[in-house]
């Protein structure tokens, strides 16, 4: 069974309790796909200098945020870990290992899309000091997992400028739309070189991503092969909540 690699925008933790088109999409995502044997999460919220994969047998739910309603800190995602998958990832990309739980970039989309928490899951870090091409190569190396029943689920945000988000205004939203439209065209057309050089080629790139980490998971998914297929597009203020599939979906 071959599974797609996915890139989703996880948004604010408030997505767990506030209705939105992006929340509805994530709730329907798991049921729309074949059941994977395991899930490899690639979250923007685990950053390291070199790739690291978690060998935790029972990953804890990490509430890596502050100032939110108490109900969010009660949420748990008690899925089993996937140490065998972590070992496979290590063999494919030479990643280091660490016993680590699931940050909200991982458990938010998992809890919405696969609420039974019965699929083994592990997490791979991103390297914000390294470029999109590095993450694309990671995806290329991880591509065989798709034919082994593993769902590669990359989680970030198609635009992520929190200062602009809290500032608000039509100009900020317009810049996000321009960037998201460019990304949609480049992904659907398979313009890999443009995507890897998005900072100099995409309009409003600096405004959309003052730093790279929330877009880096996308390049891992892109590297696994295939043009991007739009699964979802919506906005939360100036945050683009778009999602894409690579390969079959």
For the biggest β-sheet, the strand order reads 5-2-6-1-10-7
String of helices and strands: EHEEHHEHEHEHHHHHHEEEE
Report the CATH topology name: Protocatechuate 4,5-dioxygenase, Chain B
Based on secondary structure, the structural category is alpha/beta
CATH classification class: Alpha Beta
Helix proportion: 25-40%
| Percent of residues in β-strands | 15-25%
Supply the number of helical segments.
11
Describe the structure.
By secondary structure, the protein is of the alpha/beta class. The protein has one domain: Protocatechuate 4,5-dioxygenase, Chain B (3-Layer(aba) Sandwich), CATH 3.40.830.10. It is built from eleven helices and ten strands. A six-stranded mixed sheet has the order 5-2-6-1-10-7, with helices on both faces. β8 (235-236) and β9 form a beta hairpin. α5 (132-142) packs parallel to α11. The mean pLDDT is 95.
List keywords for this structure.
two-stranded parallel ribbon, 11 helices, 6-stranded mixed β-sheet, globular, 249 residues, alpha/beta
In short:
By secondary structure, this protein is α/β, with parallel strands linked by helices.
Secondary structure blueprint with pairings:
Elements: E1 5-9, H1 21-29, E2 38-47, E3 52-54, H2 70-73, H3 83-93, E4 96-98, H4 104-113, E5 121-126, H5 132-142, E6 150-156, H6 162-167, H7 170-188, H8 192-196, H9 198-201, H10 205-208, H11 216-223, E7 228-232, E8 235-236, E9 239-240, E10 243-246
Parallel strand pairs: 1-6, 2-5, 2-6, 3-4
Antiparallel strand pairs: 1-10, 7-10, 8-9
């Amino acid at each position: 069974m071959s599974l797609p690699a996915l890139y989703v925008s996880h948004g604010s933790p408030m997505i767990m309790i506030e209705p939105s088109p992006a929340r509805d999409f994530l709730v329907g995502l798991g049921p729309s796909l074949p059941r994977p044997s395991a899930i490899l999460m690639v979250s923007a919220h685990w950053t390291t200098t070199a790739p690291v994969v978690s060998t935790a047998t029972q990953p804890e739910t990490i509430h890596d945020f502050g100032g939110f309603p108490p109900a969010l800190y009660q949420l748990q995602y008690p899925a089993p870990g996937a140490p065998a998958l972590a070992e496979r990832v290590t063999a494919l990309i030479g990643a280091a290992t660490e016993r680590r739980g699931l940050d909200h970039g991982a458990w938010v989309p998992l809890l919405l899309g696969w609420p039974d928490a019965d699929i083994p899951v592990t997490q791979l870090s991103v390297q914000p000091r390294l470029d999109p091409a590095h993450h694309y190569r990671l995806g290329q190396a991880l591509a065989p997992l798709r034919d082994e029943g593993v769902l590669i689920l990359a989680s970030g945000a198609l635009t992520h400028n929190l200062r602009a988000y809290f500032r608000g205004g039509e100009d900020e939203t317009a810049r996000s739309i321009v960037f998201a439209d460019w990304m949609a065209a480049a992904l659907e057309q398979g313009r890999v070189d443009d995507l890897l050089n998005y900072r100099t080629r995409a309009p409003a790139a600096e405004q959309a991503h003052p730093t790279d980490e929330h877009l880096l998971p996308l390049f891992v998914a892109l590297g696994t092969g295939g043009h991007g297929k739009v699964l979802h597009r919506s906005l939360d203020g100036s945050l683009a909540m778009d999602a894409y599939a690579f390969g079959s979906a």
